[in-house]
Amino acid sequence: MLPPFKIEQAINQIVREEWGRILAALVASIGDLQLAEDVLQDAVEQALTTWQQQGLPRSPAAWLITTSKRRAIDKARRDSRFAKLQPELRYLAELDAQVEEPDENMVIPDKRLELIFTCCHPALEEKSRIALTLRTLGGLTTEEIAKTFLDKPKTMAQRLSRAKNKISVAGIPFKLPDNAHLQQRLTTVLSVIYFIFNEGYSASTGQRVVREDLADEAIRLARIVYQLMPEQTEVAGLLALMLLHDSRRFTRTDSTGKMISLADQNRELWDSTRIKEGTSLLKATLAKQQVGPYQLQAAISAIHAESISWSDTDWQQISAIYELLYATQPSPVVRVNQSVAFSYAYSAEEALALLATIENNESMLNYQPFYAARADLHIRTGQRSQARADLKRAIELSHNTSQIEFLEEKLTTI
Predict the structure, then answer these.
(1) How far is CA 66 from CA 17, 42, 43, in A?
(2) Exposed, middle or buried by CB within 10 Å (0-12, 13-18, 19+), for 151?
(3) Rounded to two decimals, what is the model's pTM?
(4) Residue 32 burial (CB count, 10 A)
(5) What does the pLDDT look like over 184-196, one tens digit per residue?
(6) Is residue 400 very low, low, confident or very high in pLDDT (cuts 50, 70, 90)?
(7) What is the dihedral of CA 188, 189, 195, 196, to 10 degrees?
(8) Would the pLDDT of 98 be above 60?
(9) Contacts of 64 (CB under 8 A, 6+ apart)
(10) What's the distance, Cα to Cα, between the start and end of the chain in Å?
């Protein structure tokens, strides 16, 4: 018999690794996301007791699915709200009657792609799509998700409940969209994953620059989608982009948590395994000649990753790729990033002129990277008073402690 903490460790690992796959299979069988999640949670709680007494089953996932289905049948018999599910549950009950113990050879259908498209349906607001994806695909707890959004657990629980209820009431189907809507919906799915990664890679709030848990989760979700949709080039592009960005994770702060700029990072400590995987994936998908924004961003990150030093970086090529990116995805955010590359490829003065073309854009009024980038250009062109004004505004718009300290230190030097 395993000690209790060993059982808890095993269950926690299974939940984190298998939650999305098990939940998706249950939703496909039961037809109700809320019910599927409730019974799976019940099964996990039952496992804490049963596995402690009887030991780990040979197939924990199969055990959890069988136990969850039995719980669903019990709930349906007692609760009139689930009357609409009776035909499906009656079928499950018939199967359940034929199997006294979980089938260790059970083949769990992989319905995670259907689940993530359901969670990212455009009928749900963005925050709910992100939260629901983290909960259903990632297996994160409500408390963990609430912490991500700086919400109270009760508030996040209500948000998740409303989202799942909307899926049920609106009759959002648990299936892949048809070909006519697939690309549009896939864009939403990828944007959700990239949002999760960006919040992990460069935390907008809190004290840490990097939130490893979120960055890891986003990469794991992207791997799932890539595994299920390998023909979609932008899926591969996003995965490559995140891997290349993440290769710099351990050099972005020093031992005290102080932020280190890209120019000052120790490139010998970049993760060569991540770089190799990211560049190989990128080259393979670019060869298909279906280039999209994520692939272009990954190409920029690959140039950084393969540059021996900051001064060795091919800034002209990066600037050219940004121009192509702007042509496919015109936005002032792209212009801000391009201005930095342009300043090193050509001149800081010309880069300032590029920024001037978007300074009156409403979306830039409260966009912290705009002021941080312009402050740096003002410093390099000797415009100290303008640089100080922009740095102060960037600090006002920052909510991450490490980022604020980094900008404040720069302010003291001009």
Answers:
(1) 18, 12, 9
(2) middle
(3) 0.77
(4) 23
(5) 789 889 988 998 8
(6) confident
(7) 160
(8) no
(9) 14, 18, 22, 40, 43, 44, 47
(10) 66
